[in-house]
User: What shape does this take?
Amino acid sequence: MNSAANQISAKLNYSFLENNQRKFQLDIDLDLPSKGITAVFGESGSGKTTLLRCLAGLEKGARGVLRVKGEVWQNERFTMPTHLRKVGYVFQEASLFPHLNVRENIKFGLRRITGDKNKTRYRQVVEQMGLKKFLDNHPNELSGGERQRVAIARALVVEPSVLLMDEPLVALDANRKREILPYLESLHETSELPIIYVTHSIDEVARLADYMVVMREGRAVGQGILSDVLEDTSSPVFLGEDMGVVIEAKVVERDSHWNLVRAEFDSGHLWVRDTGDKFGKKIRVRILARDISLALTNHSDTSIINRLRARVVSINDHTDPAMLLVNLALGNTIVIARISKRSASQLKIESGIEVWAQIKGVAILR
Assistant: This one.
């Protein structure tokens, strides 16, 4: 983790009545990176949106200490007004001004920036979010994904210290999500801006996040680098069928005949479906525990094309009494296999032994 001057440090407490009945209390103590995407993950009602609103200064009853990159936004004696906090906020709905076109919606925030700088910034975000051809359109002439890109551009144009995104894809169908995700990935790759991204979708977490905070009943019950949180089988993150890990790899070979690419990571390689990525492109692959089987020898007479030598690190109970979770080390990379207790007994699986992890290429998620 970076030094305190480069962190977002939040120790905040806020309580309110839900529907005039149950008291909800947010009580968090977080030190978040000042760069990259931090995913705030949890079920509905866990306090994710309330946390974002407290960071933005929208909840006047919040108490505690908030520092952003060394600047005090709140402490016991002082609370910076919302309009002075350098925050970009993207809501679930785009919330654009319907009477303004795209150009005017984006420029709305530029009243806070003077001189040539605002023109340069405007051109940058329009290009970054791929909006040049839509500038004369009004919101009702745009798709849901296009409207959300305009909302992101409007939040970015003010050059915020932190970008807050509250489930920006939740209102979009699958096609619109696929349309906007590359823009979020590009923003992640090219910007030094810290982004706090609220979601209950583990697919979005796996594709975008560097750091992960797990919320439950108003508290952060887990946090850390994404790979560390996902590979921890004792973690409070319960993902059920979606349990698995994320591996960062680089495209190094293409097999056009079979429509596959070879993605290399520090402990080996995987053959995955070809989605057109260029050589040298860094990609993320997500491997679910349910899609890994184990063998004691390397079988070539199988349809499974990814077979990697691995060492059993630990064996853990599963919520299903018939199953186990096996942590495997592929060199320095950890993956998780979900196998039955019967299979573990037949193969005599125990910590320290070497096995072959078999991963279906078609099962690897991109």
